[in-house]
Design brief:
Number of helices: 0
Strand content: over 45%
Oligomer: single chain
Structural class: mainly beta
Radius of gyration: 20 Å
Order of helices and strands: EEEEEEEEEEEEEEEEEEEEEEEEEE
Helix content: under 10%
Number of strands: 26
Length: 298
């Protein structure tokens, strides 16, 4: 994967590897902060940046699930071709007792969803790497069983086969977090394994995660959508600026539904290109939740 390649420019190629095994770290998220650029690598963990790195003063952040984030100035990557990420050692948090009662949190009907997050609008560009929905349990301790997500989907036809119609393809990752007790947003990751979803069949995505063994130690947790910023997952939107000029912007699937309910507490947080979690206030105070449902056993 690469950032905005241009002819006759030097191409700087990097391999992101595990610091111990020296094997490629798959599907890494790379963001360049001031330029507001971000991509996701393929399974080979390779990406490229064009130009003379020695003259660049922007910040790059490299992140992969299960690894410590790597943050540095672009000019400090000059002459380097391998970036080593340090793996995070997960600690198993014991849960004293888990019952078999199934609890549905934030239930949403597909027919009620009319608004979606993840798209550029005339009033705000969508520059987030992840959006997270917070859930609240009646008591501490549970296992996550199932997740349902309502997304924006379109039927598309193929010009070469005019009678062939398919659903727009999407690919994304699920991230599960406990609450950061200091900041209130997403904190430590609860899933040890990568949960990647690839779908083109339904507007409502039902995802069984019972075999991932995700334990929720506290009374609250987050489920986040991580956008895969690659060429197969991108789309385009034409927007008219205040000046009247029409511009084409890139966005990434899926667009996530907004639960059409009002509440006193905002339950949506966004991870920006600087990898900082902040409350996502675009739809508040009218709507406070994403159209994501969680089913837990407690």
């Amino acid at each position: 994967m690469w950032f905005g390649l241009h002819a006759q420019q030097k191409i700087n190629t990097f391999h992101v590897v595990d610091s111990l095994t020296k094997k490629a770290v798959p599907s890494v998220s790379i963001s360049i902060v001031r330029a507001k650029l971000a991509i996701s690598t393929e399974k080979d963990g390779v990406f490229s940046i064009p130009g003379d790195l020695s003259k660049m003063r922007d910040t790059v952040i490299i992140n992969a699930q299960g690894y410590v984030s790597y943050k540095t100035m672009l000019h400090q990557l000059n002459g380097i071709d391998s970036l080593k990420l340090l793996r995070i050692e997960h600690q198993t948090v014991p849960i004293d007792s888990i019952g078999k009662q199934e609890i549905v949190l934030n239930s949403v009907k597909k027919a009620d969803v009319a608004y979606y997050a993840g798209l550029h609008t005339e009033t705000a560009k969508f520059d987030y790497l992840q959006l997270a929905q917070q859930f609240h349990l009646p008591k501490a301790g549970a296992y996550l069983k199932k997740i349902n997500i309502i997304r924006l989907a379109f039927n598309i036809s193929y010009e070469s086969q005019r009678d062939a119609v398919g659903m727009e393809v999407t690919r994304f990752r699920l991230r599960i977090y406990e609450v950061d007790t200091l900041k209130g947003g997403p904190g430590t990751e609860l899933s040890k394994r990568v949960i990647e979803i690839s779908n083109k069949d339904n507007q409502s995505l039902g995802i069984n995660v019972s075999n991932y063994g995700i334990k929720i130690p506290g009374k609250s947790f987050f489920i986040a959508i991580e956008w895969m910023r690659d060429f197969t997952n991108q789309g385009y939107v034409m927007l008219q600026e205040k000046s009247g000029r029409t511009v084409q912007l890139v966005d990434y699937r899926p667009a996530i539904g907004i639960h059409p309910v009002k509440g006193k507490i905002l339950n949506i947080w966004g991870l920006d290109l600087n990898r900082q979690w902040k409350p996502y206030t675009y739809f508040s105070p009218d709507f406070t939740d994403l159209a994501i449902t969680a089913v837990v056993l407690q």
